[in-house]
Amino acid sequence: QGKQKKARKYAVMKRMINLRDQRINEKDRAKAREKKKEDPSAIKEREVPQHPSCLFFQYNTQLGPPYHILVDTNFINFSIKAKLDLVQSMMDCLYAKCIPCITDCVMGEIEKLGQKYRVALRIAKDPRFERLPCMHKGTYADDCLVQRVTQHKCYIVATVDKELKRRIRKIPGVPIMYISRHRYNIERMPDDYGAPRF
Predict the structure, then answer these.
(1) Which residues share a beta bridge with 131?
(2) Which of 2, 39, 40, 104 could join 134 in a cystine, given CB atoms 3.0 to 4.6 angstroms apart?
(3) Using one digit for the tens of pLDDT, what is the confidence trace for 9-20?
(4) Which residues, in sequence order, are bridge partners of residue 55?
């Protein structure tokens, strides 16, 4: 007759006394929250997101040549794999002058990738690229690009990342440039009641 096996107790916490407990002194005790009664005659306020004035139906009037294109890290890498010249391919896609813009956090991401991506770093440091300073902490570029595009709708976003594409599609009036079949393509906004297209 061996010892009985004791079942191990998982996630056992020390029981804490509630701050509203009667055993705590009156001055230290947490006060019960009083529910505010809603006034039926008061005007109810609700926040409605304002659509930017630059949108004419689904068409963004701030977009026009020369196009400013926000470039993502993986877009540069895929362009190198597809043997595409970044600026020339953008001009072939849009039939207009293009200014590729690169943010500090995208630059930081490329630098972090190390020696293997030195060609991408050299392309990113091209004088034809416009450098955009970032004020946020860290080098996570996706959040930065989404925030920048939400505030200023004058950019086209160049990316191959599915998750980033999904997030940007939710923002109205922002086209996405991507690579397929060894050339650049652009996702156009849907025509809305005969709205002009760029």
Answers:
(1) 102
(2) 104
(3) 666 666 777 777
(4) 60
* Prediction pTM value: 0.69
Over residues 134-154, mean pLDDT? 89
DSSP state of 180: E
Record the tokens describing residue 142, joined without a space.
């996706």
Report pLDDT digits (tens) over 162-179: 999 999 998 888 999 999
Mapped onto helix, strand or coil, the DSSP state of residue 106 is helix
Whole-number pLDDT of residue 37: 75
SS3 122: helix
Closest Cα partner for 68 from 97, 92, 99, 30?
A: 99
Cα–Cα distances (Å) from 34 to 5, 40, 134, in that order, read: 50, 18, 44
Angle at 137 between CA 136 and CA 138, to 5 degrees: 125
What is the C-alpha to C-alpha distance for residues 129 and 132, in angstroms, rounded to an integer? Answer: 10
Longest CA–CA span in the chain (Å) reads: 88
- Give the 3-state secondary structure of residue 184: strand
Cα–Cα distance between 52 and 60 in angstroms, integer? 9
110-127 in b/e form (b: 16+ CB < 10 A) is beeeeeebeebeebbeee
Q: Which of residues 37 and 9 earns the better pLDDT score? A: 37
CATH numbers and ranges of domains, the chain:
63-187 (3.40.50.1010)
Q: At what angle do helices 162-169 and 141-151 cross, to 10 degrees?
A: 20
Residue with tokens 């061996």: 2
